[in-house]
Amino acid sequence: MIYLIHFRRPFKHARHYLGHCEDGALEQRLERHLAGRGSRLMRAVGLAGITVKVSRTWTPGGRDQERQLKNRHNMRGLCPLCAQAWRRHRNALARKRHRARRNHVSETV
Predict the structure, then answer these.
(1) What are all long-range contacts of 45-51, with beta carbons under 8 Å and residues at least 24 apart?
(2) In this structure, how many other beta carbons lie within 10 angstroms of the beta carbon of residue 15?
(3) How large is the angle between the packed helices 40-47 and 26-34, nearest 10 degrees?
(4) Which of 1, 43, 41, 40 is nearest to 20 (CA)?
(5) Residue 72, Cβ neighbours under 10 Å: how many?
(6) Separation CA 87–CA 80 (nearest Å)
(7) For the chain, which terminus, N or C, has the lower number of CB atoms within 10 Å?
(8) CA separation for the pair 105, 108 (Å, rounded)
């Protein structure tokens, strides 16, 4: 199983952690991460007090598939939480542009 962990706030440049574990062992793997064992990034995130959430999993998936996903260098594109935030941001920008156009048209008439 491959899993994607979303950080509630960025740690330096990092916003996500992608890893893999045996099927059914995700809970134990997360406990290890939260205890500061395993990944140096996850240890640093925990020490910084950043809360994390598993945002997506892929099954089946192993080390090779994990490497393929990491090589894409697009964790934000894989993260449903980031996609949701991006949609909200994009919609807010569209509403702002629409209001500006509407106001501009009414001022010129």
Answers:
(1) 45/7, 45/11, 45/14, 45/17, 48/11, 50/7, 50/8, 50/9, 50/11, 51/7, 51/8
(2) 17
(3) 60
(4) 1
(5) 10
(6) 10
(7) C
(8) 5
43 forms beta bridges with: none
Residues 6+ apart with CB under 8 A from 86: 76
- 40-85: pLDDT as tens digits: 999 999 999 999 999 999 987 788 889 988 888 888 888 999 887 7
The whole model's pTM is what?
Answer: 0.73
**Strand, helix or coil at 33?**
helix
Q: Which of 65, 77, 66, 60 is nearest to 39 (CA)?
A: 66
3-state secondary structure of 14: strand
Give the helix ranges, DSSP H, for 35-74.
40-47, 63-71
Euclidean distance between CA atoms 7 and 3, whole angstroms = 13
Say how many C-beta atoms besides its own lie within 10 A of residue 66's C-beta. Answer: 18
